[in-house]
Design a protein that fits this description.
Helix content is 62%, strand content 1%. With 500 residues, it is mostly helical. It is found in: Mitochondrion inner membrane.
Length: 500
């Protein structure tokens, strides 16, 4: 990815102006090193020249193939994936290519983002980025690299051998490159709510200042919520089977996966496989909204002035935000369990179920299992984050050479593995929570406390009894993550959300 000797730098030198004192560039550093796309007649002409070079077939639009051939002529080489990201980022009318207006808009918009990132990396505010500043910036994001790796990153952009990067070198390297910044690693790798496994992800999405100002954050949340709804609906039969096995399976009444599905269909037909899914989907919106708002407030309370938190801060803020959101929507969790366990004709719907629970058991019934649910937050969030960060750093150390983008399959594998480990650690608490939520539905069953249930399960079923229903729970993780990702990408496109 080294650009020494490429033709693009002298061509871009003509594209950028050097009006250092211009009011439109207020705050720019003097000295000719802070050039901008101004849009004057001369710059427009040079942009047209660059556009014509890249428009290889001369049809008035730059497609991926044009971009590949044109950039090679200029001495710049990009992968097909990178070229597709460039076209996708600037293609406003979704015709698969960039016309001249879209091309100019992409360059100007991209340069603004590059400038903000350059300033955020330039911690000494001297107009240059060195290896220590790169290491510190990545360390702030939870990514640790050696000085040799930081120098390798520098060499890919350094044209004059100073082992520092000035604004011109930074801009020339990245302007026709889809990666906006080195901190984009945190956006590639952030532990995102788009990977919905049907359980409560405790660390919410983190959004940049630009996304908050432009309103893009709520579109991401809407897309993530829609993806979660589709994902949970597709895996609802496995989720209901898990609940049934957690509550009814025992040594004397062993429930297998095939037998469990057969019994559900025999008792209530195929539609019964989705009992409890309605409330499980409905609770996505309030849970996500409350968690996001609580997370942002907690970030301010702990005194963080960064867009992204370190691992320990994310664990604390995420756990507290998860506790607040779970406390608020917990009655919906109880309703989900009761509806999943109901017999045909037992309830007329969500409202009827809620009224009967309140009338027969009182308000306290809506908080049965609350304590083990809260206790399960720390092991789930802690192990989930720890495993994810370990896998992330291992991949970056081993394979990140020219790009920090791991690709979809690596992200899916990391998220699936970390979520699975987190669920495995907190599963006994989740099982006890479910049994406490369901106690009133178990004919003649004793009303036990959390400690009493633990002792009863260990005495009658052994340690394995704390993992009833684990198989269908793990079976749903991979399809849930995959479905949520695919739906999320399609919803982002529909909502006009720029790829992060």
């Amino acid at each position: 990815m080294h650009q020494k000797g490429s033709l693009i730098s002298p061509l871009l030198n003509g594209v950028f102006c050097q009006c250092d004192s211009s009011e439109s560039h207020r705050g720019a550093k003097p000295g000719g090193g802070d050039r901008h796309l101004c849009g004057g007649p001369e710059q427009d002409h040079r942009l047209k020249v660059l556009f014509q070079i890249l428009d290889v077939n001369g049809d008035g639009g730059i497609c991926v193939n044009d971009l590949s051939i044109g950039l090679k002529k200029l001495g710049v080489h990009r992968t097909e994936h990178e070229l597709m990201k460039i076209v996708k980022a600037g293609d406003k009318d979704l015709d698969g290519q960039l016309d001249f207006g879209e091309f100019v808009h992409y360059l100007r918009d991209h340069e603004k983002k590059l400038r903000l990132v350059f300033k955020s990396l330039d911690k000494k505010n001297d107009g240059r980025i060195d290896s220590q500043e790169i290491m510190q910036s990545l360390r702030d994001l939870g990514v640790n690299i050696s000085e040799q790796q930081a120098e390798k990153i520098l060499k890919s952009m350094d044209k004059n051998g100073t082992m520092t990067i000035d604004w011109n070198e930074w801009r020339d390297y990245h302007l026709l490159h889809p990666a906006d910044n080195i901190p984009e690693i945190i956006l590639y790798w952030k532990h995102s709510t788009i990977f919905d496994v049907g359980e409560s992800l405790l660390v919410p999405d983190e959004f940049t200042a630009e996304e908050k100002q432009t309103g893009m954050w709520w579109r991401h949340l809407v897309a993530g919520g829609g993806a979660g709804a589709v994902s949970r609906t597709c895996t609802a039969p496995l989720d209901r089977l898990k609940v049934l096995m957690q509550v009814h399976s025992s040594k004397s009444n062993s429930m297998r996966i095939a037998g469990g599905f057969t019994n559900m269909v025999r008792e209530g037909g195929v539609r019964s496989l989705w009992r409890g899914n309605g409330i499980n989907v409905i609770k996505i919106v309030p849970e996500t909204a409350i968690k996001f708002m609580a997370y942002e407030q907690i970030k301010r309370l702990i005194g963080s002035n960064q867009e992204t938190l370190g691992i320990a801060e994310r664990l604390v803020a995420g756990s507290l935000a998860g506790a607040i959101s779970q406390s608020t929507i917990y009655p919906m969790e109880v309703l989900k369990t009761r509806l999943a366990l109901r017999k045909t004709g037992q309830y007329q719907g969500i409202g009827d179920c809620a009224k009967r629970i309140f009338r027969n058991e009182g308000m306290s019934a809506f908080y049965k299992g609350y304590v083990p649910n809260m206790l399960g937050i720390i092991p789930y969030a802690g192990i989930d984050l720890a495993v994810y960060e370990t896998l992330k750093n291992w991949w970056l150390q081993s394979y990140a050479t020219d790009s920090a983008d791991p690709g979809v399959f690596v992200l899916l594998a990391c998220c699936t593995t970390s979520s699975t480990c987190g669920q495995l650690a907190s599963y006994p608490l989740a099982l006890v929570r479910t049994r406490m939520q369901a106690q009133a539905t178990m004919a003649g069953g004793p009303q036990m406390t959390m400690c009493g249930l633990f002792r009863h399960i260990l005495r009658t079923e052994g340690p394995l009894g704390l993992y009833r229903g684990l198989a269908p729970n793990f079976m749903k993780v991979i399809p849930a993550v995959s479905i949520s990702y695919v739906v999320y990408e399609h919803l982002k496109m529909y909502l006009g959300v720029r790829s992060r």
